[in-house]
Design goal:
The chain is of the alpha/beta class. Helix content is 49%, strand content 20%. Among the domains are: 100 residues, Nucleic acid-binding proteins (OB fold (Dihydrolipoamide Acetyltransferase, E2P)), CATH 2.40.50; 137 residues, Rossmann fold (3-Layer(aba) Sandwich); 41 residues, no CATH class.
Length: 456
Amino acid sequence: MIDTFATAGSAVDFSRDVYSVSRLASEVRAVLDGSFPLLWVRGEISNLAQPASGHIYFSLKDEAAQVRCAMFRAKRILLAFRPENGQQVLVRVRATLYEARGDFQLVVEHMEPGGEGALRLAFERLKARLAAEGLFDEAVKRPIPNFPRQVGLITSPSGAAVRDLLTVLGRRFAGLPVVIYPAQVQGDAAAHSLIAALALANARAECDVLILARGGGSLEDLNAFNDEALARAIRASGIPVVSGVGHEIDITIADLVADRRAATPSAAAELVAPSAEHLRQRLLALSTRLAGARHRTLEAVRQRLKAAARHLSLVHPAARLQQRAQRLDRAELRLKALMTERVGLARRRLQPLMDRLLVLSPDHRVERGQLALHALRQRLIRSQAELLAHRRERLMRAVAGLEARSPLATLTRGYAIVTKLPGGEIIRDPSEVASGERIRARVAGGVLEAVVQSVE
């Protein structure tokens, strides 16, 4: 029996699992999020939109299909370039569903230009495979000789790297022989040329260490040093290999598989060639240590000889006479010390009596009276000064009060005393003067004479 529930003339069948649109979109998104790991996808950018939020939205397409993509602001600000329509890119993405519109889309975590991105992807894959085989393990790498008899350079004979290498090698150890094995360091044939030069150096076996070097460049320029065959040839070399490829930030497969990696060609030369100045300082230090050891040995023999002579002197008959003389000297010293102590004790007993006599002396009383008189004189001088200061302060306050009550002080605040001319009567009301009369106004800075123009 099927239960139904009627509402407003309709019936709902509870035996059916009916999805809402939002539930369906949410579960589809969960399936997508859980089914695909992070993926690398290559394609062309189109319909690029960059709103004020900082996110970017675009479509990624190829000849047969396209898909919507979103890259949020936190990832976009890490981009080293500016995406544009029509640009080929390689993106690292998560496949998901935009529930609000039901659109399948890719959320971009990383983006790089297509050409370099392909090379970098190939680099990462080869790096992981060779690392799994153990080609980069430190245990299989050969030590670099401290004092090579001859150094081999595998590089372009016309590049800047070979000049830097020769300059640094000549500066560090001018007498070190160098052999150059010419090779191409860029282009399609570069990897094969480097392998051939490495094989030639091993066949001739005339060098104790090899430097594989090239100047800086783009990932495409350095791609020859990411060749798998070259990496295996470096590992199979019977001569230790030092890599000095590119600049400090450039890392190649050759750097990882080489026995030692230097940041630049010049750094590789610094690593391989012993420093003549350092050797000179080392020899000087060893010479100093040898001289010190010789001096310490002679000093030890000299001390043993002195000890033997001292033992001989102790058993000699004259030694007993010396010991008796020393006992006599010690007795004399003890006698002198005892006498000194007795004299000191007598002086200490006498000192209190002398102090009491000094206190009772008239000279002492006169001196204390002079000190008391001097103190009273100083107190009198201070009291006079304080009294004068107090009286001066009272006088200044009285002067200030007098000035505050003076009519002249009122004038300084902008008032004036107006009188008639020529009589000099003070005018207290405008009705006391008429137009045309002369008046005088006394202000703080002087006297003004004027003629009345009008009376209001």
